[in-house]
Amino acid sequence: MNDHRILNALSYFSILFAPVIVPVLIWIFAKSEDVTHHAKVALLTHIIPTIAGVLCFSSVFVTALTNGGLLANVSFFVTGSLFIFTLIAIVGLFIFNIVRGIQMLLTKNEEDAWI
């Protein structure tokens, strides 16, 4: 098995145990352009749910500080929408990373993989 495929798969599978740390380390220490490309993609797909989660929880905090009034219904709508978006982003990108990791292990040539 090619070492590049293992490192590529490890970048994506790291969502299970060290989401941001492993892709950053692989990106910094990898010698191959192919490996650094997949580490960057994995890092991006690990950071997006983190940013969405911070926005969601800050919105919940702001909504909790709003004690009724004219903007109460709007803030609850925005918070609910942001929570649903965050949940979809986290689940979708988690599945994407698992599928991409499996694909990296199963492909024989890099040209066979999408992205």
From TrEMBL:
What are the subcellular locations of this protein? Membrane
Coiled-coil segments, which residues?
A: none
Q: Which organism is it from?
A: Listeria innocua ATCC 33091
Note the Pfam families from the entry. MamF_MmsF (PF09685)
Domain of life, per UniProt, equals Bacteria
Where does the sequence pass through the membrane? Answer: 6-29, 41-62, 74-99
Topology versus the membrane: Multi-pass membrane protein
Q: Which UniProt keywords apply?
A: Membrane, Transmembrane, Transmembrane helix
Alphabetized InterPro entries for the sequence: MamF_MmsF
Specify the protein name.
DUF4870 domain-containing protein
